[in-house]
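Morning!

This is the sequence you dropped in the shared folder:
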Amino acid sequence: MKIKNNDLFIITGIVLLSLAFRLYAFLNTSVINSDGVYYINQARALFNNDWDMAKNCGFDFISLYHLLIPLFYRLLGDWIYAGQSISILFGTISVIPFYFTLRRFFSLSTSMTAGLAFAVNPFFISYSVELVKDPIFWFFALLGIYFLIFAVKKDKLHLLPFSSAAFLLAGFARFEVLIYFAGSIIYILLFEEKKLKKLLFFTMPAIVLVALGIVLNVFFPQEKLNLWTLYFLPRTQHFFHYYFESLMNPDILIKSVAVLKLFIYRTAKVIYLPYLPIFLIGLFSMKSELGREKRFRYFILLSFISIIALYFFYMKIQVLSPRYAVFFILPAYIFICFGIERIVQLGTKKGIRERSIILFICLYIIFAVVVSPDNVLPRKSEKVIYKTAGEYIAKIENNRSTIIMAPDTRIMFYANLNSPVIECGNKLMKYDALIKMNYQDMAHFLKSNNVEYFLWEAKAWEGAGYDFLTAIDPAQFRELMRWDSEHGRLILFKVMHR
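The structure's back. Tokens below.
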């Protein structure tokens, strides 16, 4: 795996550019994503070695991302920066296995151009500054693809366990990406020579992991040491619970049409609309490219399996977020390379130099992002009002643990971020359910659950059955602060318990 000087120069430049775009997004992202509340609270519980709270203070699983946050917190001393730095790190370095995988098949110029498109893709940039587990899965999934391709092309079977291990680590970050592990097994069985030997090498880490899990479970039966109970069991239970009942539904055809439309829309969003023409040109060049290199079938197989998996995911959860579309995009990025090569081929036939064509495509890729820098930001600044409200409460409470009923979990998160006690926002009734109560029932609920602060949000209360602001009893609620923003008005009340 000796790296040539040209490749080292190119990948260093791409990584630095990738980092620069992510730092721009980081510096212009003022408030965390709502999922980040759960990740940080659970990571804080793990840091305190409170595994029971960790499993009940957010998501019903503990992933690799949860485990890394306390480690980065020890280095940085800030929970939010710890979570974001993990995303930035893995989001930035994901381009490394991506680029070197392409170099197994394509020229330096094509790999560089596709690597550039991946590094500055607004979707991947924006999620690289979020408190999410996705960048970890991107990196290890791409690393698994790289090791498998390198192993089978160079007949270095000792690298296949590294591929498998990378996929398993990706699965520990995002369970659904284990379809790559399954897809790789199918590929070996269908298309590779020395099938059984390669399959044995590839599955070795999984076999060792299962055996190790059984041994640990016998000698150390604590639940926190059981990876299956810790992560994989909750994920499989969540997905397959009533799955077949939801699949065998009379409106399955309507759902199928809906998922097709959503898939096209989400895929276009992840690829990034200005890059879509290159992708489509490559897609229509697939047949000729398959004739040139048979192992392109691996990427096409993974893409096809991902589409099937996305269909079944939608049938279960009725959601197809762009984050799920990435399962398809990572292996399907090969079509970007096909498209670049096809454009170069057509251009050179018209007498244009290859270097000029590559330069034009690279400038187009960068300009398409720079011309609209807001595309790389995960959200608009209007949500900063939640951070402002939370930090205001933390200030007046002097970072004392405080229970808050608010329209967004981030308010209570910021209010308790520096408190020695972790307050889990998922323990209270949903804000929408509170609005449906009448005034007296709502006031009674807040007091009986020791809620100290209540935030009224104009937008959320538009559909309420009464006007809370005119119904207020000063003996029950005392107004402390008002904030007005693009998101609307937010009013903070102190709940009077006497």
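Headline: Strands lie at 404-405, 453-457, 477-485, 488-495.

More detail when I'm at my desk.
O.
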